[in-house]
Amino acid sequence: MSNSTDLSRAEELTEQLLSGNRRALSRAISLVEGDTPAGRLISGLVYPHTGNAQIIGITGSAGAGKSTLVGSIAREERKRDRTIGIIAVDPSSPFSHGAILGDRIRMQDLTSDNGVFLRSMASRGNLGGLSEAATAVSDLLDAAKFDVVLIETVGAGQDEVEVANAAGTTVLVANPGAGDDVQSMKAGLMEVAQIMVVNKADLAGADTAVAQLRSLLAIANLGAWKPPILKTIASSGDGVPELVDQMDEHQKFITVSDHADQERIDHARRQILALARAVMHRQTLAEAADSLSLDMLTSQVAVRSKDPRAAAIELVDALRSSWSGTSLSK
Q1: Both 193 and 110 in a single domain?
Q2: How much is the average pLDDT of 86-98?
Q3: 3-state DSSP assignment of residue 96
């Protein structure tokens, strides 16, 4: 497809998307997910129209009840007459590399609501469980004038700190009896969560989980925002209105408080660096796969004449030479 055709297609879909056309939004998301030329153009065209939606990341260990909580949050937001875009990032299928829908059926009742748009996406094995495209897709939903965008991640534990790069507010969900999970997350916990939630609070151990989170906060080097710790029962909706209230409070903090300008700068920096790492990782692996250096180094490591770390450094040096115009095979 020619550059002029890509541009024309991108401009047409962008105009339709901005006017509220859901079919155009779905097509644009598919192009962005596929990292197509038209998708990249659309991302650039919509970005000036973003910055109005609340972007909320919902993260935490598997089994914490994130999907049920996302559904309850969406229902509460609809009671407040807000439109909702939901990005559900699922583990990738090892066969098709598409999303495994999993417990997405728990939110199926929302799909008949015209004020809700649900998109399930594949993580594609991305570190942190959050696909590179999720950031761009949240921008599309923002530009399409959704009031709130919820990004639910797959639940890979501490690696999910990457959700903070896409979301303005990150909600970390734990559950009673998850003491070991809480401890294992603490290295990245404080830099991720603006709100902490103990879900399934009707089960034994909820108060203990709250105490564990509070103890971690007590030793953390926190900034101006002090993360609240809330208890919810997502299945019944208990505690969800209070959670949405706190999400609104944090939105005010990052948009209209004295800290808003610095928050926007810090968030933009995190996004750029995270996406740069993702692009470099993908491009480096693609070039390395075609490199004669990789074949040679693989043979050396296989017979133990070179250690893997030294081989990795040598491969990176070879790739740097390639980027500066020198052949990789030299």
Answers
A1: yes
A2: 61
A3: coil
Domain that holds residue 41: 1-49
Does 267 reside within a domain?
no
Statement to judge: residues 107 and 172 lie in one domain? yes
Sort residue 145 into left (φ over 0), alpha (ψ -120 to 50) or beta. Answer: left
| CA dist list (Å): 179 to 11, 18, 129, 157, 188 | 50, 45, 22, 13, 16
DSSP letters, 185-215, are: HHHHHHHH-SEEEE-STTSTTHHHHHHHHHH
Longest dimension (CA), the chain: 66
Highest mean pLDDT among 56-70, 99-113, 213-227, 229-243: 229-243
Q: For 276-288, what is each residue's pLDDT tens digit?
A: 887 787 778 888 8
- Say how far apart CA 52 and CA 177 lie, in whole Å: 38
Which among 137, 157, 161, 160 is positioned nearest to 149, based on CA atoms? 137
Do the domain assignments include residue 20?
Answer: yes
At residue 117, the pLDDT reads: 95
How many angstroms separate the CA atoms of 160 and 43, rounded?
Answer: 24
Q: What is the rounded distance in angstroms from the CA atom of residue 323 to the CA atom of residue 265?
A: 30
How many separate domains does the chain show? 3
Checking phi first, is residue 220 left (phi over 0); if not, alpha (psi -120 to 50) or beta? Answer: beta
The band of 159, judged by pLDDT with boundaries at 50, 70 and 90, is: very low
Please check whether residues 175 and 41 belong to one and the same domain: no
Q: Residue 199's domain is classified under what CATH number? A: 3.40.50.300
For residue range 287-318, list pLDDT tens digits in order. Answer: 888 778 888 999 999 999 999 999 999 988 88
Closest CA relative to residue 199, chosen from 293, 327, 61, 82: 61
Token output for 159: 């690696």
Domain annotation covers residue 159: yes
- Residues 44 and 84 grouped into a single domain: no
Q: Which secondary-structure segment (H or E) carries 139?
A: helix 132-143
Q: Is the domain of 286 the same as that of 238? A: no
Task: Give pLDDT tens digits for 61-72.
Answer: 778 899 899 999
